[in-house]
Design a protein that fits this description.
By secondary structure, the chain is mainly α. The chain has one domain: Methane Monooxygenase Hydroxylase, Chain G, domain 1, CATH 1.20.58. The protein is built from 4 helices and no strands. The longest helix is centred in the last third of the chain and has 101 residues. This is Vesicle transport v-snare protein vti1.
C-alpha cells in the first residue's frame, strides 16, 4: 500500500477523472442527441444520473482539497495546479448540465405542444397546457435542480470543514509526540552524562582505596621494622 503524502490525492484525482469521463459521455453523447417522446424520458433519466455523478465528482474535489494540506510545500505547487484544473472541469460540466437541462425542457415543451396539435385558447392563458404553465413547470424543475446542487455543495463544505478539523487535530498530536520525543532524547543524554560521572567516581574510589591500602601496608612494614630493631 502506497503511504506517500500524495497517494490519497492521486487516488481521489483518478476517481474524479473517471466520473468526469462518465459525465462527458452522457452529456456530449446520449444526454444531448436523444430525441422523440420516449427518448425525452430516457434523457431525463440520463441527466439525473449526471447530477449524481457531478455530486460524487464534487466530493472528490473536496477530498483533494483536504489531502493537499498534507502535501509538502516542495510538491504542493504542482498539485495545486492539478486541483485548479479539476475545479475548472467540474464547473464547466455543471454549466453544461444546466444548458442540456434547459434544452431538454424546451424539447419537452415543444413535444407537448406538437402532441396536443393545437395551441391553448387565448381565454385560458393559465391553463394546464398553456406556454406559461409549461414554462413555470420548467422553471420549477430548474429550481429543484439548483437546490439539489446547493445542498450537495453544502454537504461538501461540511465534509471539508470536518476534514480540516481532523487534520488540525492530527497535526497537534504530531507536534505533541515530537515534543515528547525531544524530551526523551534530552533525558537520555542526561542519563548518559550521569552514568559517565558515576563511572569516574567509582574509578577514583578504587584508586583511593588502593592508595590507602598501600599507605597502611607501608606503615605496618615500618612498625614491624621498628619493633624488630628494638627487639634485636
Amino acid at each position: 500500500m502506497d503511504t506517500s503524502p500524495t497517494a490519497l490525492f492521486e487516488s481521489y484525482e483518478q476517481d474524479f477523472q473517471q466520473f468526469i469521463e462518465t459525465i462527458k459521455d452522457k452529456l456530449e453523447g446520449e444526454g444531448k442527441d436523444e430525441t422523440g417522446g420516449n427518448f425525452l424520458e430516457q434523457r431525463k433519466g440520463t441527466l439525473r444520473r449526471v447530477e449524481m455523478d457531478l455530486d460524487e465528482a464534487d466530493e472528490m474535489v473536496s477530498q483533494m482539497e483536504i489531502e493537499i494540506q498534507g502535501i509538502p510545500q516542495s510538491l504542493r505547487s504542482k498539485y495545486q495546479t492539478r486541483l485548479r484544473t479539476a475545479k475548472a472541469d467540474l464547473t464547466r460540466y455543471k454549466k453544461l448540465l444546466k444548458e442540456v437541462q434547459a434544452l431538454n425542457i424546451r424539447s419537452d415543451l415543444l413535444s407537448s405542444r406538437n402532441a396536443a396539435g393545437v395551441f391553448p385558447p387565448s381565454d385560458e392563458p393559465y391553463g394546464a397546457n398553456s406556454d406559461r404553465a409549461r414554462l413555470l413547470s420548467g422553471t420549477s424543475l430548474l429550481e429543484d435542480g439548483t437546490k439539489r446542487l446547493q445542498e450537495s455543495q453544502r454537504l461538501a463544505l461540511e465534509t471539508e470543514n470536518q476534514g480540516a478539523d481532523i487534520l488540525t487535530s492530527l497535526r497537534g498530536q504530531r507536534e505533541q509526540i515530537e515534543h515528547a520525543r525531544g524530551t526523551l532524547q534530552t533525558a537520555e543524554i542526561s542519563i548518559e552524562r550521569a552514568t559517565g560521572t558515576l563511572k569516574r567516581m567509582i574509578v577514583r574510589m578504587y584508586q583511593q582505596r588502593a592508595v590507602t591500602a598501600a599507605i597502611i601496608a607501608v606503615l605496618v612494614l615500618l612498625i614491624i621494622v621498628i619493633v624488630w630493631e628494638k627487639l634485636s
